[in-house]
Write a structure and sequence with these properties.
Elements: E1 4-5, E2 21-27, E3 33-41, E4 47-55, E5 58-72, E6 80-94, E7 104-116, E8 122-130, E9 133-140, E10 148-160, E11 165-168, E12 181-184, E13 209-211, E14 214-217, E15 223-229, E16 237-242, E17 247-252, E18 261-264, E19 267-268, E20 271-277, H1 280-285, H2 288-291, E21 307-312, H3 314-317, H4 344-357, E22 361-364, H5 394-404, E23 407-413, H6 418-434, E24 439-443, H7 458-473, E25 477-480, E26 496-499, H8 507-510, H9 518-521, H10 558-567, E27 572-574, H11 579-583, H12 586-594, E28 599-608, E29 612-619, E30 625-631, E31 636-641, E32 651-658, E33 671-678, E34 683-688, E35 693-700, H13 703-708
Parallel strand pairs: 21-22, 21-27, 22-23, 23-24, 24-25, 25-26
Antiparallel strand pairs: 1-6, 2-3, 3-4, 4-5, 5-10, 6-7, 7-8, 8-9, 9-19, 9-20, 10-17, 10-18, 11-12, 11-14, 13-16, 14-15, 15-20, 16-17, 28-29, 29-30, 30-35, 31-34, 32-33, 32-35
Helix pairs in contact: 4-5, 6-7
Length: about 725
């Protein structure tokens, strides 16, 4: 049987009365998820390709269209014929170089739908359905009638089945650094969200546009997350909501002349992903986005090391040191003379602290010339990445760090002059290797050069991958700031340890900050695509400590900052505060010293987006477990089972908790540390203050511990 499909753009509401024919159905291995590929009549015996998704017979995605608009060649993708339907299944395990678990299970059912147009242009739809969601992409195979083409737009639709609750940030081409809004779908409005980035004046291409990952909860308690996987050689996808029918349509980030992508066959689009469950914990546990990415291209990854770092960084954000040599404070209304942070003596102080406390590495920002006049200038040649300031003796610092057994992390702020960075990458990376730097933190603050390009457009997506390839060739690990939002590409390039792509902890130092629910939303949104360098571990919560006139503060308690090392996953974790603030509270700092950055197992114990998260993780090649529990502005109490612990062991639990009178705004630094003997049958009572958290280390107890500490009994 041949089915002819007419591929053009229709509004979702036209489908509600259309008679859909099912081309093929693909179900998840557990049969809970059903993905139907449909043909829809559009008049004159012509048909359009569409799809639907159900979870346990509840609608997740209603009838939604799939289409492309080509600018060149002048060919409409119409009158498709289904030439073949191929079904297959995969059930396998694989081991990541680093990650939240030692082994990842990859099991799905797949449909390959081969299509051909009247003009003999070939296109394939590939659908994979997992137990935790579904992904689909288009493939343009090698063919004589379509060798290269310009994509004007992709129109993939996501028709929602109701007016769901949604956690969203505005659609933007250049930044992800926004506070999240929590509204109904019908209430999305970027112009009224109050979420605008304080650094740049923002204009949104559509007030109903949002970024992915997009997290939703339905009235019948389904949790739905929409994102993309394996974003390569293609622009990032935003979503524009039609409020008349609650249907999202993809909107790709354009280039300087309005085109979306320049492609050559054979090529593929990114996977469009829908993670769905009736349990919020399943959303956080999903590995579907990782599974949809290609395996590692790095044959010998032995040089890739998850690690903790401290850095000459926070002191600039709180205003007691500067990035630039002249001592001007970036971002202040007037130039306040403060010391240059990246001076040799100061850096040595950080190296000493790292060596003493088992911290792997030290990051130094502001070490190279150019910081006096870099911000927002849209200038081509600001930094050269090899010329230190006069007070940064790189030879002395590198030798001292090596002697102390501490690695150094290079900082490359490009000021968004990407063409300048690309010209200098080889020179910069050779310079790094000469001085023993094995990791780089990149930055792209500002408007992109080439002028008119965007952080999330195809050109920059390709640049970010070029950086990963080039650094891998030098055996350098990457922490990217101001990047395109991640889509699981760290599986393919495991030297891609972490990135920013969201509103980080530094916003608490000089803006209205991140509200107490922020960290309970990020794992359901930004972290769905990959690890985030969130920079937790702030012990001095109120910025008035540094300047009595400052009203800013971190919107958490101190022990919530500890818990973030578990709930905000990253193989590159920063102890972000100043060494002296840790030295003032060595008992609390012990958790940061102990907590792992690489894991053999992860258990999502309890979670609700925007409210609370409790996660337990088992350290790599160890019997130690760590637990993090965080809440929003509401105080909460949980009874938490420790059944994840090994059944044949007793553990000493070191509990870092909020003091009874603690809260994020009134008494944020008050905490208590308690130790008990526990086992897998124990139920712990966790009491979290407003904006608070609990962090726990579980280590196998020896005979001395068993005699010294009491067995835990719930009060």
């Amino acid at each position: 049987m041949q089915i002819r499909i007419y591929v053009i753009m229709f509004s979702c509401f036209l489908f509600s009365n259309a008679r859909a024919n099912t081309i093929e159905t693909v179900s998840s291995p557990d049969h809970n998820i059903s993905f139907r590929v449909l043909s829809l009549p559009s008049g004159q015996n012509q048909f359009r390709l569409a799809y639907e998704i159900d979870y346990k017979q509840l609608p997740v995605i209603k009838t939604s269209g799939l289409s492309f608009i080509l600018k060149s060649p002048d060919v409409n993708l119409v009158n498709f014929t289904v030439t073949d339907k191929i079904k297959s299944s995969v059930n396998e395990d694989w081991q990541p170089v680093w990650g939240e678990m030692k082994t990842i299970h990859n099991e799905y059912n797949q449909l390959l739908l081969k299509l051909k147009t009247d003009k003999d242009i070939l296109i394939h739809l590939i659908v994979r359905v997992y137990n935790d969601g579904a992904g689909f992409r288009f493939e343009f195979p090698q063919q004589p009638n379509l060798t290269h083409f310009i994509l004007e737009d992709e129109k993939t639709q996501f028709a929602m089945a109701g007016n769901h609750q949604v956690f969203w940030i505005p659609g933007d081409y250049d930044s992800n650094e926004f506070a999240y809004s929590h509204t109904l779908l019908s209430e999305i409005d970027a112009s009224k969200s109050g979420a605008a980035n304080e650094i740049f004046a923002k204009t949104f291409f559509d007030k109903n546009a949002v970024q992915t990952p997009l997290m939703m909860k339905t009235n019948n308690n389904l949790y739905i997350n929409i994102h993309e996987a394996a974003l390569r050689n293609y622009p990032a996808m935003n979503l524009v909501l039609d409020k008349s029918n609650l249907c999202f349509t993809s909107h790709l980030v354009p280039d300087a002349v309005g085109n979306k992508a320049y492609l050559m066959a054979p090529t593929v689009t990114p996977w469009r992903t829908i993670v769905v469950s009736d349990k919020a914990t399943d959303i956080l546990a999903s590995k579907m986005i990782l599974n949809l990415n290609d395996p590692s291209v790095i044959q010998d990854p032995s040089w890739i090391k998850p690690q903790k770092m401290i850095g000459v960084w926070w002191e600039m954000h709180v205003g007691i040191a500067s990035w630039d040599y002249s001592g001007g404070q970036v971002g202040s209304q007037q130039k306040i003379k403060v010391p240059h942070g990246a001076n040799t003596a100061n850096v040595k102080k950080y190296i000493d602290f790292a060596s003493k406390n088992g911290i792997d590495a030290v990051l130094v920002e502001g070490w190279n010339t150019g910081w006096e006049d870099w911000f927002g200038q849209w200038k081509e040649n600001v930094f050269d990445f090899v010329t230190p300031y006069p007070d940064f003796n790189i030879d002395e610092i590198s030798a001292y760090a090596k002697m102390k057994g501490v690695k150094m992390i290079m900082h490359h702020e490009t000021s968004a002059s990407v063409t300048n960075y690309e010209r200098q990458m080889d020179t910069a990376y050779r310079f790094m290797k000469k001085y023993g730097y094995d990791a780089v933190k990149t930055g792209y603050v500002g408007k992109i050069i080439p002028r008119g390009e965007h952080h999330d457009g195809q050109w920059m997506v390709n640049h970010f991958e070029r950086v990963l390839k080039k650094t891998a060739s030098y055996k350098i690990m990457v922490d990217a700031h101001e990047p395109v939002r991640p889509t699981g590409l760290h599986r393919t390039y495991p030297n891609f340890l972490a990135c920013e792509a969201a509103r980080g902890n530094e916003f608490n130092a000089w803006s209205i900050g991140n509200m107490p629910d922020h960290e309970t939303i990020l794992p359901f949104t930004r972290l769905m695509g990959g690890p985030m360098d969130y920079t937790p571990g702030i012990f001095k919560i109120k910025m008035s400590y540094y300047n009595p006139e400052k009203k800013e503060q971190v919107h958490t308690t101190l022990t919530k900052q500890l818990a973030l090392y578990v709930t905000m996953y990253s193989p590159l974790q920063m102890a972000a505060d100043l060494p002296e603030n840790y030295e003032a509270k060595p008992d609390a700092f012990q958790f940061i010293k102990d907590v792992a950055v690489d894991w053999d197992d992860t258990k999502i114990l309890q979670a609700e987006p925007g409210d609370y998260i409790i996660i337990a993780r088992k350290a790599k090649n160890s019997n130690n477990w760590f637990l993090g529990a965080i809440t929003d502005e509401q105080a909460r109490t949980f009874n938490t089972s420790l059944s994840f612990l090994d059944a044949d062991k007793k553990y000493i639990a070191t509990i870092y908790r909020d003091a009874d009178d603690a809260s994020w705004n009134n008494n944020p630094e008050a905490y208590k540390i308690e130790k008990y003997i526990v086992d897998h049958k124990t139920n712990l009572k966790l009491k979290l203050a407003p904006g608070g958290g609990t962090a726990i280390g579980f280590m196998p107890a020896n005979t001395v511990d068993l005699k010294q500490f009491k067995k835990y009994k719930m009060k």
